[in-house]
Amino acid sequence: MVQQQAALLKPESLIAEFKKNGVTHIVTIPDSETNYLYELMKEQDWLDVVPSSREGETFAIALGLIVGGKVPVCVIQNTGMMESGDSIRGMAIDAGFPMVMLIGYRGWTRHGVITDSAARYTETFLHAMGINYYLLETDDDATRISVAFEEARANNRPVAVLVGDEYHGFNRM
Amino acid sequence: MFDSADMFRAFQPHRDKAIVLVTGTAGRDWREISDNETRDLTLQGAMGQTNSAALGFALSQPDEKVVLFDSEGSLQMNMGILGTIAGKKPKNFFHFLMDNECYATTGGQPVPNASEINYAGMAREAGYTATFQFDNLEEFTNNIEAIMKEEGPVFVAMKMIPKIENEPIGRRVRKPQRSRAETIKVLQAELGITAA
What we know:
The structure holds two protein chains of two kinds. In chain A, about 40% of the residues lie in helices and about 15% in strands. By secondary structure, chain A is of the alpha/beta class. Chain A has a single domain, classed as Rossmann fold (3-Layer(aba) Sandwich).
């Protein structure tokens, strides 16, 4: 019998990408997809976590941080991203600064039928807002965060990274 | 209740080098009164989110005093920000609330529970370091110097006389003002901030 190690997305891989891209702040509301990442982010002395009350706040707080010379990432769930429509419009797109958002892709699956409307509308929402996005499923995809940063900085626009799997590892394996 | 222009004139001598942000109809009075436009920052652009953006800027520049003149209509759209601000405890953040009890720019319709809601009480219970409330100019004037020496986050609720606009939008006369992008560019140059 051949044993196969399932491909995983480890939170450590995301932290390494944040550090590589000079991220200083994470503006976030934790969700089930990013829970393990939250614990690890809190442990980094070079990273300041800003917990928010509602997702719409995260894009405005991030704009303030960017204006002040910092490099934030908004870490929220797709449901909260849709709640944030006006904030994304006014504080991310119209402001004309590079901004990367990491979005927990609740309900998404590569296999079978997607039944969760949160997942069904996620990419439709991003298309409507004209925001490009990349999908992370395993550690092999983690470098797409750097791609998102390059694109955001080149175009002074927000770019989304969709997290299509719960994180594995970090105190939980 | 007191006049927002009078309030800004009382605040101005105690501004020192603080970075000032305004929102709402009452905030427009500041543009005529500010004596340091270089340090006036505009981060409006989404409903109820100027306070969030002001927090982000305060966190990015902890050695600069950041003063936000918020409006109660804006705060009611984003009340969770009180907990967010209190949670980060920015010592350099001063959150003034201009409460005229109505949506002045849309004709003066009352905000929910306009006359009974206690914003200073909410800020205090959310965890702000110091909270104040004023309904007359004399008391505000007598206390503003001491308030500006407090450690943040500070919350100051003020009852403002509404300046209601009923003209159709197309007929309203707007004074020219600097764009958000321009205020950002000027302030970044003033503080020596370069894109990260």
